[in-house]
Amino acid sequence: MLVFESDDWGSIRIPDKKAFALLLNQGLIKPNDPFSKYDALENAEDLIALFSVLKKFKDSQGNHPVFTANMVMANPDFEKIKTADYIEYYWEQFTKTYERFSKDTFLHLQKGIEEKLFFPQYHAREHLNVQLWMELLQKGDASFRKAFDLNCFAIPYQSKDNRRDNLMASYDYNSDADFRFIQKSITEGLFIFESVFNQKSETTIAPCYVWDEAIEDAFKKNGISVFQGSRFQNIPKRNGGGFKTAFHFNGQRKNESLYLSRNGLFEPSLSENIDWVSKCMESISIAFKWNKPAVIGTHRLNFIGSLVEENRRGNLEKLELLLTKITQKWPEVEFVNSADLVNVYINYNPNK
Known about the structure:
Shape: globular
Distance between the termini: 19 Å
Helix content: 40-55%
Number of strands: 12
Structural class: alpha/beta
Mean pLDDT: 96
Largest sheet: 5 strands, parallel
Order of helices and strands: EHHHEEHEHHEHHHHEEEEEEHEHH
Number of helices: 13
């Protein structure tokens, strides 16, 4: 069984080429950071190109490869926040963001879902540490105010008040008030997910793999107890400090939670010096050798072409080569989504 898990769909990052140039000129982003160079809100062209590659392949059961697309439900409403003089936070649903950038995007996303090429799951309401971002805006931080004016929050930030070098970890928090804000965002975000996709999300994945037991409990109260992730969970230390690390493996059960763990990567935008097809094939080989599913992590930025068209074109060629090699080497492969894999673990009987 092979799963592709892909994060960040629905979230803004770099609005457009003009914003990228201005952010770069003002020293607000790093020129060689892949997420700054390539990652932007997906558009219809991105989805059409990705789906056209996936539709070229079928597994032993006649199913196309499917992306478990971890969706961000909302983005900051920059106009409303500025009108409120940065005192109140406002968000807009990602479908409204789509309309402002590319009106046909949601139509093609729905088509991908219908054709079982795209399987949406819940990532977060917004891919942003909202509380810290708003605090910086209210203090008049020059860098974040400049980025804000370009409808961007995804710039580097290093401080003793922040455990990471940016503000992308939605579930990093230090106070009870911050946690209550996150709890509300989870409830609201899952409500948006169900209203948009007419189904509940069966799994979730924390942005930047940052979450703790209290966040898990918040999801359980909303009906989700399955957590996607990498091998390692970053647990924020209370009272300042960095992160504690917890190890997870596929099918692990703990405190009524079930974990899925990515054991392979396909991230060609992150480095041009790695043969990602060979690297991913090696990871799949190891998983299959030990009779385990292959769960491949691949972020959205690999398939976005609005900032650099060659990024999408070249990486889709690599994806097509990867899928060709997979289906040739393992003709018995089954392409499944994350929820399918969860059902396998739930129904697994070791005595059979």
